[in-house]
Write a structure and sequence with these properties.
349 residues, alpha/beta, Rossmann fold, SH3 type barrels, Elongation Factor Tu (Ef-tu), domain 3, 6-stranded antiparallel β-barrel, 5-stranded parallel beta sheet, 17 strands, 24% helix, 30% strand
């Protein structure tokens, strides 16, 4: 970022170690820091607000609560539910970041004359002389660039990531140096609104029938009916447990057909494929690169990434891997990398 020492910077604070250290680091660098907490209307938010206020007071920074419950419900929770009910597997974090945190929250922070927002993500934002590059954080085990794949130039020009050059271990050390010694072992949940629940339990807790869409057949890849399910929203590609379809070798979910209300199962070999299509792809530079080109493509957050030729076709962006990949899952996001640099990402069709 350009030199903003002595100027205003807003920190998205969650009450966790990462955003706490982010605020402390920026204070030490001479920024005028104010904390902003997103109230998403989730259970337990009252307790978390108290926690955030205590941390802000210990740091000596102002904290403001921003009510984003309605847009979060409309733009993230609806997406999450509708994607599951259509036979695909959503990634709400990839959806939430550009829409809510780096969308609505950033806009609210800027309204208050804080031109730049900082977050505790383990990524780097680098000016390459022409545009902002989103790069992996140096702590590869904590790198979160996958979840930010749909940020563009307007957003990246107004955000900074102070932890991108740090390891998680060092962040814990820095928290302790600031007098915060109670963060150890308190990692954020992968999906904040799930509260550790299964998909079915979550839908039940929200008053949504877990068998919507209706129950139906479990069929093999050759079309043989081998069982029944209680609603496709409880299944995802690669799933083995809970199928209730015994055989000499395990069955896995290899596909979901929402129109026929079918869960399609197969053997381990049926999970592997060497290609996919990406729909609604977003490019970090705001314009597509020259294609075809070979990139490293991640098909889920915990996927190591694999080399693939990426081409533009009439059907969308086509990805052909050098070798087959396991459990390519419609609805999840495929993210393209050139080394450490995020090129773009979109949902697997």
């Amino acid at each position: 970022m350009t030199d903003l020492v002595g100027k205003n910077i807003g920190v998205a604070m969650s009450g966790g170690v990462d955003s706490t250290v982010t605020a402390a680091v920026l204070q030490q660098q001479g920024y005028v820091v104010r904390g902003f907490y997103m109230d998403l209307g989730l259970p337990g938010m009252e307790k978390q607000v108290i926690r955030v206020k205590e941390i802000a007071a210990q740091l000596g920074v102002e904290i403001e609560i921003i009510d984003l419950a309605q847009p979060f419900f409309e733009e993230v929770l609806h997406y999450f539910r509708n994607t599951y009910f259509s036979g695909r597997t959503p990634n709400p974090c990839v959806r939430c970041n550009p829409q809510i945190k780096f969308g609505r929250l950033l806009a609210e922070i800027q309204k208050r004359e804080f031109p730049v927002m900082a977050t505790g993500h383990y990524v780097r934002n680098v000016w390459n002389g022409s545009f902002w590059q989103l790069e992996k954080g140096i702590d590869r085990k904590k790198d979160q660039s996958y979840f930010l794949c749909r940020l563009g130039q307007e957003q990246l020009s107004h955000v900074t990531f102070p932890l991108g050059e740090l390891s998680k271990a060092r962040v814990y050390e820095m928290a302790a140096e600031q007098g915060f010694c109670d963060f150890s072992g308190k990692e954020s949940q992968d999906i904040c609104f799930m509260q550790g629940m299964s998909i079915r339990d979550y839908f039940s807790s929200e008053g949504i029938e877990s068998n919507t869409p209706a129950d139906g057949e479990i069929v093999t890849v050759s079309g043989d009916v081998v069982g029944r399910h209680q609603g496709i929203c409880g299944y995802t590609v690669g799933q083995r447990r809970g199928l209730g379809v015994p055989d000499k070798t395990p069955y896995y979910v290899v596909g979901l057909d929402a129109d026929r209300k079918q869960v399609i199962v197969g053997k381990e070999a049926d999970l592997w494929s060497d290609r996919l299509f990406i729909q609604d792809i977003s490019w970090v530079s705001d314009k597509p690169p020259e294609l075809p080109h070979v990139y490293t493509v991640k098909i889920r957050y915990r996927h190591d990434g694999a080399p693939a030729e990426v081409t533009m076709t009439e059907e969308g962006v086509k990805v052909v891997f050098d070798s087959p990949q396991r459990a390519i899952t419609p609805g999840q996001f495929a993210v393209l990398y050139d080394g450490n640099v995020v090129i773009g990402g979109g949902a697997i069709r």
